Amino acid sequence: xxxxxxxxxxxxxxAAGEVIERPAAALKELVENAIDAGATAISIAMTEGxxxxxxxxxxxxxxxxxxxxxxxxxxxxxxxxxxxEGEDDLTNILTLGFRxxxxxxxxxxxxxxxxxxxxxxxxxFAIQVSGGEVDGPRPAPFPLASAHGTIVEVRDLFFATPARxxxxxSARAEAAACTEVVRRLALAxxxxxxxxxxxxxxxxxxxxxxxELIDGGLQRLRKLLGAAFGDNALVIESxxxxxxxxxxxxxxxxARGTAGQQYLFVNGRPVRDKxxxxxxxxxxxxxxxxxxxxxxxxxxxxxxxxxDVNVHPAKTEVRFRDAGLIRGLIxxxxxxxxxxxxxxxxxxxxxxxxxxxxxxQALNLTPQGIxxxxxxxxxxxxxAPPPRLSLIDxxxxxxxxxxxxxxxxxxxxxxxxxxPLGAARGQVxxxxxxxxxxxxxxxxxxxxxxxxxVYERMKAHLQxxxxxxxxxxxxxxVEMDPADxxxxxxxxSDLEALGLTVEAFGPDALIVRETPAMLKRLxxxxxxxxxxxxxxxxxxxxxxxxxxxxxxxxxxxxxSVRAGRALTPDxxxxxxxxxxxxxxxxxxxxxxxxxxxxxxxxxxxLFLRGR
Length: 611
What we know:
Elements: H1 8-19, H2 23-36, E1 41-47, E2 53-58, H3 65-71, H4 102-109, E3 111-117, E4 124-130, E5 133-140, E6 149-155, H5 171-188, E7 193-198, E8 201-206, H6 213-225, H7 227-231, E9 233-240, E10 243-250, E11 262-266, E12 269-271, H8 274-284, E13 296-301, E14 307-308, E15 319-320, H9 323-340, H10 351-358, H11 401-405, E16 423-428, E17 432-437, E18 440-445, H12 446-464, E19 469-479, H13 482-490, H14 492-497, E20 501-504, E21 509-516, H15 524-537, H16 548-558, H17 569-580, E22 595-599, H18 600-606
Parallel strand pairs: 1-7, 11-13
Antiparallel strand pairs: 1-2, 2-6, 3-4, 3-6, 4-5, 7-8, 9-10, 10-13, 11-12, 14-15, 16-17, 17-18, 18-22, 19-21, 20-21
């Protein structure tokens, strides 16, 4: 077979396979063109997930007839700046698009119509491209209310490459992908109004946000992602050298099971970059389980020559000149914000939860409604409470002297507490502490809260002089699979720094001689098995020092106050006070919330007070 040159139409269709792999990709290119044109209002409409019809209308600068002809030519663009030497400057890209591939690619596989008008033009002009065949430009009516702008209509996407249609998902799935594209671009530009219609139904409509950048970004965020995220978002704003980072990071308790709500932008460009995602994991590693993902909207701004955006066909990945600077800025900024969040719950009880409680089945609890024969215990004097166990005397944690002093008997249960977490009033189901605050009540999960406190103490001791150890009077032998024994024994020196002295005791057992002194009620058997499971997941070359936070978290979980453990008022108040003095006390090491708040207003609503 001899070598031959491919036709322009074939070349465009091949290239379109890289640039336009689904309707969402076509929509992304069209909306980015509208943004680059300086639009302040962008309207999008689609049917059948964008396969049958896509329309993007904007009030940007518009195009003259000669520009319309060039717009559908491959590698023709107005966006690439020219250097002082007269060369195209790929290091100084200030726009979302720059390759000049989108429109010719779409025109080669679909029926494309572009209608545009410049502000100083007498009328509008339209050009059509169907499967690569060009018709126009010619004069055309301009239906937009503004005097200038561009309307791009795409019909029958992939009609010229029908094989591509077999790889598309359902119309609903494609519509969802298109919606997500618009949502990300709308988050990137809160100063632009967006309207999205699907099947003649408005999916969302957002006017341009006003005010400062942070305020406008938060307003757009609440509209597109819901008020719940806005209520649980921490404002991030920091800079280092010539890089600025701003945006919003969700509290760990608001994390999701997938990474679908991680919105990352570089110079206004939505990206899914491995470096940025890795920085997120590092920032949240102390407060989230490995299968949980934080909700964030973060914007990185830096000079264009410090980042290469021309490394991926869809421009969703970038390469930073100083990757370490970017990663360090993100990790330190997020960790600082999470630490400074203070004692703050993810949310109070949601309105939906309150309504479910309020409309629950009414119970007849009057004396006449409770037969003595069926429930005799309700008519007998309450038995004396069982003796309480003490955390301080042989419990799971020796509370700090200053914490014990803060809950002296005469000040143990004030009528009103100035402490953020209030004063303990009781314990229910041996699991939850109920505390009264100035404007409501607080419910604390005692195991989750204590787990965080122990974890933070272990980290502090480790960074200072190492975790203190206590020698077991009778060493504990743990029988395990030989492979697990080998894994744990190989890490014995690293575990010793955490206060755990362990060594092989034959081929199928380990012997534990010392445990961390702060973990009074440690389940050694369960701890060793969990550690063995974690080590099995890691690569043999993994340096344990790089994963100490995970080992500490596992040990803290096994050494914390368990659910079902009765606590005294002193112990409950001491726990609350130490939570207030501990960073990241709002969630346990697995990302679960440690406490929730119910305001007095919400309590009144439950009982219909004030109506």
